[in-house]
Amino acid sequence: MLFNTPAFEQLVDALRRLPGVGKRSAERLALHLLSAPGEEAQSLSEAIVEARRLITRCSQCCNLTDRDPCAICAHPGRDHGVICVVEHPSGAMAIEKAGAYKGLYHVLHGALSPVDGIGPDELKMRELVERVRAGGVREVLMATNPTMEGDATAMYLARQLAPLGVRVTRLAMGLPVGGDLEYADEITLGEALEGRRDV
Question: If we measure between CA atoms, which residue out of 16, 177, 120, 79 comes closest to residue 192?
Answer without folding.
Answer: 177
